[in-house]
From TrEMBL:
Signal peptide: none
Coiled-coil segments: none
Top-level taxonomy: Bacteria, Pseudomonadati, Pseudomonadota, Alphaproteobacteria, Micropepsales
Role according to the record: Probable oxidoreductase that may play a role as regulator of mitochondrial function.
Protein name (Swiss-Prot/TrEMBL): Pyridine nucleotide-disulfide oxidoreductase domain-containing protein 2
Organism annotation: Rhizomicrobium palustre
Record InterPro entries: Amino_oxidase, FAD/NAD-bd_sf
Domain Amine oxidase: from-to ranges: 168-444
Pfam families: Amino_oxidase (PF01593), NAD_binding_8 (PF13450)
Assembly behavior: Interacts with COX5B; this interaction may contribute to localize PYROXD2 to the inner face of the inner mitochondrial membrane.
Amino acid sequence: MRYDACIIGAGPDGLAAAARLAGAGLKVLLVERANETGGPCATREFSPGFLVSPFADVLAAIPAPLFRDLDLAPRGALFTAAVPGPYAELQAEVIQRVYEDAARPVAGGLSFQRRMPEPPFPGEPLATMALADIAPEGVSLEAASLMPFDPAIPGSALAILAGAPGGLARGGLGSLGKALTRAAEEAGAEISLGLEVTDIRRRGGRVSAVSLADGREIGTRAVISTLDLKRTFLSLFAWNELPKSLVERVGAFRSAPGVARFLVALSHIPRRAEGLRAPILLSADGERAYHAWKSGIVPTRPPALVRVVSAIDPAMAPSGKAVATVTLGGIPHSPFDGPWTHEKRLKLEALARDMLEEALPGSAETIIASELLVPPDFENLLGLTEGDLMGGELAAAQMLGFRPFAECRGMRTPVPGLYLAGPSSALGPIATCASGWAAAAAVLADLGGAHG
């Protein structure tokens, strides 16, 4: 069987791409290694009556016009209002430009990938600026990102572009995953779960098929990968099939500092949590935490974000009880002294408990259930290289028109017929669903519409 397009990964970008392509009349196959759609858009019951989104509480905002294009609200994706941060105006301008790029890609690439005299991308000047130079007085520098970094380094200001948070999804992020799945299915996309793509095949230098773990080969005119950059090129192709320069560029793409997630069920609602809509940031020395992570060491005080999810969405916990999460930044995927053992997890869990107690005094003694996720868990559950939820470091050389590298124009890659969406792509860290929507637009432009 032959398809117009095969999409690898049924996370938000893959589902958005499938909805756009199928809605335009193309024959689309969406392949997902897990047994359910959504990727990071998941909600699960980690203790009886207690619900949580295990991978993230919020994602980067979906551009409002794209949210409407996908008709997500009628399909069950409802959000609380986001708490505006100090950079909200700039972030809104950037997200609007992202949507314009996703809706109308140009032959030369996305607007911020074109050379002058084209209008510059709104956030482009940040590539040469340090966050310390632009942070408003009294604003914690780490508030821009959970990723540890040196705020004095030129280009660190780009951290504020990544993941301008949307509101909290009612019922957890799983409701967004389900709404996007409905959008793709109702558009006519075919979704295959529990199947892994093992190879991307080429004929005459152009993508021609994908091979599945069950031995089947599926013919296709185009492939959109929502996997991260390294997993796309270094696991789905034989290295000797690709130009050496491309393999070297992919290998040099740097991962972002990892995070850990501590999920807790509380027997009582913390007093400080009543009416608390914004997360609590526990600051750290970002530069010191960054160097600890680079050395494979858990920082003694990592940057942390504490959120009482049920204070915003009471349905996430039984009446009178609470669900909270602690997200720790700068957590290494591979500790210098060996893999994550049970003892290392217990030590990190104790650190997370202490930080929860610091943010919400008295809460630690009310914990009735908990779960800790570290980078190898994200790698196993989501198929992310090194468990990197960001899909690559947010640095000047890996953002805007340089992400993942300058040769990728308009979501197209150096391999004809292969398009990159997801976190490693140019739009990936900035807005949810936008990279999938833009990749689909590029496919439509290149294939010229429906062919069947």
